Amino acid sequence: MNELIGFFHPKSVAVIGASREAKKIGYVILQNFVLGHFHGNIYPINPNAEEILHLKCHPSVLSVRDRIDLAVIAIPAPLVPTALEECGRKKINNVIIVSGGFEEVGRIDLKRRLEKILGKYQKMRVIGPNCLGILDTRTGIDTLFLPSYRLERPKRGGISFISQSGALGSAVIDWAAMQGFGLNKFISYGNALDVNEADLLEALEKDGSTKVIIAYFEGMREGRKFFESAKKVSRKKPIIAVKGGRFEESSHAVKSHTGSLAGSSEVYSAAFKQAGIIQANSSREAFDFARTIINEPEPKGRKVQIITNGGGYGVLAADAAIENDLILARMNAETVKSLKKKMPERVVIGNPMDLTGDADNERFRIAIEAALNDNNVDSILVNMLFQVPTLDSDIVQILSELNKKKKKPLLVMSIGGNYSELHRHALEKEGVSTFISPFNALKALRKMVEHHYFLKKS
Amino acid sequence: MNELIGFFHPKSVAVIGASREAKKIGYVILQNFVLGHFHGNIYPINPNAEEILHLKCHPSVLSVRDRIDLAVIAIPAPLVPTALEECGRKKINNVIIVSGGFEEVGRIDLKRRLEKILGKYQKMRVIGPNCLGILDTRTGIDTLFLPSYRLERPKRGGISFISQSGALGSAVIDWAAMQGFGLNKFISYGNALDVNEADLLEALEKDGSTKVIIAYFEGMREGRKFFESAKKVSRKKPIIAVKGGRFEESSHAVKSHTGSLAGSSEVYSAAFKQAGIIQANSSREAFDFARTIINEPEPKGRKVQIITNGGGYGVLAADAAIENDLILARMNAETVKSLKKKMPERVVIGNPMDLTGDADNERFRIAIEAALNDNNVDSILVNMLFQVPTLDSDIVQILSELNKKKKKPLLVMSIGGNYSELHRHALEKEGVSTFISPFNALKALRKMVEHHYFLKKS
Predict the structure, then answer these.
(1) Residue B22, CA distances (Å) to B29, B32, B47, B147 in order
(2) For A385, nearest residue in chain B (alpha carbons)
(3) Which residues pair with A14 in a beta bridge?
(4) How many beta-carbon pairs under 8 angstroms link A with B?
(5) What is the pLDDT of residues B174-224, one digit of tens each?
(6) What count of other Cβ atoms lies within 10 Å of the Cβ of residue A418?
(7) What is the nearest CA distance from B431 to chain A, expressed in angstroms?
(8) What is the CB neighbour count within 10 angstroms for residue B248?
(9) How far is CA B141 from CA B34, B43, B72, B73, B429, in A?
(10) Best mutation site among B21, B25, B31, B150 for testing chain A: the one with the most A CBs within 10 Å?
(11) Most-buried pick from A153, A264, B210, B215 (CB within 10 A)?
């Protein structure tokens, strides 16, 4: 990961501002390294403590003898410049400043002091200030100062997520963890004193374990550089962006948040399109798009077959297909003929295909298999109501096997309470892309289709 | 509830097609009456059984001596006419035909036979066929043939939900139950041989325990009558509608689903507006609108104050406010002055008001109380990240107390995993309107503001 690699693969880390009080940021961060799966050396820095979490404390990084690869600074803003200066002198090349209280609250003076120090130590790269830093599910780097009983950490996956807003980013990964979605890296870069969205994009391009990039930002430090990088990166790795502060009135809020300036909504949308960036309206939507792109094979075109055991969901899915510029597939005459033989008379072999409320596992298997094998069908949406007594839990196994054989996108939507959610989560765990509304599913499909069209055209 | 009252308050019920097999529809429906909180007499009808669930079976309703107020028919379609005829002869005035297999699969002949019988017995009203029938959380009527371990039943509440699609309706109430939302009545009316959406609207208008009506439909039997009723009803009880089959292509699916014809999307939208019907894009959205209208006092106007401990969510909420034609409130100078005294310097007293990531319970209480008392603020959206260590669970108590005192809408949005969802559900239980995205919250607020404007204008 080029010059930023040190942030993700440090062999030793110092926590400047390590605290003995469980509610303090400096305690939670230290605890993450101690109790997590980080394997390097850990140095708590605190001039007023002897030992924290059974680790010997040092008054300053300068009093640590060994090399330090990564420093995390979590002390009040006025004390940060001195700590950063010491990091420079100690030749620490990667520093995360978690502390807030700089230009976002008008302390331009403090920001200037940090810039000066950065200028002096050319090899030192800084993430932050005013950020949560990094969560890397592979190496165990975790500077999120929210304890894991309050904020769950997702399992390993292919999605890396960079966010200007730490709060938004962390709440979303907490949600993603509960949903069973995988994550690769989360990087909250806050005020972007040094490392910004453009740097991170280039770093993630080179990161083998990152398959898709999600970016949330409000304003940009280096817009031109970002879009130039994006144009290049989006050909290799899909980039999904959520832009906050899209209106004149709401963009006022951005300045006091991360001290950057938001641009107009239209300008950004146009730039996104040109650079091949997929735009999402929310981070949930961004995760839908990202999961679909990671899980699903490339669709040949826009023709989608809807299969359901709930007529109303068939109708709403057909609406959603039209709204998302997709086409309702028409299966081959032979497929229809063969299905008619295998299905009860009341099942209409159309699109949507309503298997009716008494469909069992086998009826679903036959219908989905037929659609998978029909070359007039580019992708499939199954609207599954698990609640009906004719279906049993083995449907998870059946869908999971069909999913492994598929050569076209196969999405499953289900809505309901605990019983239904249990089965949806089980499918998600088996690698099936699941959704809680037909609209969400087909919007994700649309974005994937459009992205593949973009890749072919350009 | 006028002539339809018998459907909701029967003193005795017959289940025609009661079955001994646990997976059969006729078993589940009988079980609902036996194990639920229905207090009347129950008569299983099955010529081939002696006893089911410890109840004596009868070969026909005609062999039951006592009066029967409600019959539920769950037998194959070709047998339904004879059963309905017998209900007529037995003078049963309320019949629910759950069975499918009529005009929706081309059996116009069977439909005609039912119509003829209906013509003969003028006092008999029929819900269905091809439907789930009724769930009434107050009286325990429950003809939903999905066992409750698969499909949860919501707690009592003020929302009544009529749905042409049984599958859609039942999946949504299952979801609503899990969310902790209340429900009054659910009525799935399927093919609407007799009782249709217009009849149900008029019945629910007179039903004291129904506060808001949600309607899902694809086509309509008596469009003119429905909109005339709606015009009248919507002045007393808000009506929220979701229309399936909104496009030429997708409306083909409607015919095979419930045998009715869907009209054009624009025609419906215009008619909704004129009749004061609030249009929702999905049933989830409909529940958001309904909850907000039931829980929240009337807002004076469009000015919303956003309060958050997550800057990014402040920015996204400001975006959502603009997108939903709301106005970012500007608090009075005195409020701002007084808040500045009580808050740390880095808290910007603006809109959004970012209490910053280390906000504690008390900081939230002060900010929300100030906004509740400021006459320049018409409503409040709190974007709460429960995950931060400075907040503790007592925030539920604090918000719940502020919520009880409020004279303006107070909405709470939070996103996250299990810890966060636990607290959101606790708030919901306390009567606070909670949401999982700022956009959902502010769209619901917008619909409520617009509905009150409509009521004043007309």
Answers:
(1) 10, 12, 18, 10
(2) B171
(3) A43, A71
(4) 263
(5) 999 999 999 999 999 999 999 999 999 999 999 999 999 999 998 887 888
(6) 14
(7) 20
(8) 11
(9) 10, 14, 11, 14, 24
(10) B150
(11) B215
**Are A167 and B350 within 8 A, CB to CB?**
no
Beta strand segments in A157-221, E:
159-163, 182-183, 185-188, 212-217
Contact flag B152-A418 (C-beta cutoff 8 Å): yes
Tell whether A439 is within 8 A of chain B (Cβ): yes
- State residue B1's pLDDT score: 39
Main-chain dihedrals φ then ψ at residue A391, nearest 5 degrees: -90, 140
Site of tokens 């030192």: A124
Closest listed residue to residue A374, CA positions, set A347, A327, A407: A407
How much is the pLDDT for B431? 95
CA distances from B237 to A259, B212, B214, B376, B451 (A): 47, 6, 10, 29, 11
Q: Which residues in B lie closer than 8 A to residue A288 (C-beta atoms)?
A: none
For testing the chain B interface, which of A75, A149, A268, A316 should be mutated: the one with the most B CBs within 10 Å? A316
Give me Rg for the CA atoms of chain B. 25
> Helix B418-429 to helix B395-405 angle, to the nearest 10 degrees?
30
- Mark yes or no for CB contact A150/B386 under 8 Å: yes
pLDDT tens for each residue of B382-416: 999 999 988 999 999 999 999 999 999 999 999 99
Chain B contact for A196, CB < 8 A? no
Contacts of B321 in chain A (CB under 8 A): 250
- Per-residue pLDDT band for A1 (boundaries 50, 70, 90) equals very low
Alpha-carbon distance of B311 to B36, in angstroms, equals: 48
Alpha carbon separation from B132 to A6, A372, A414, B110, B427 (Å, rounded): 61, 32, 19, 19, 32
d(CA B52, CA B18): 8
**What would the pLDDT profile of B52-63 be if each residue is shown by its tens digit?**
999 999 999 999
Q: State the Cα–Cα distance between residues B94 and B96, nearest whole angstrom.
A: 7
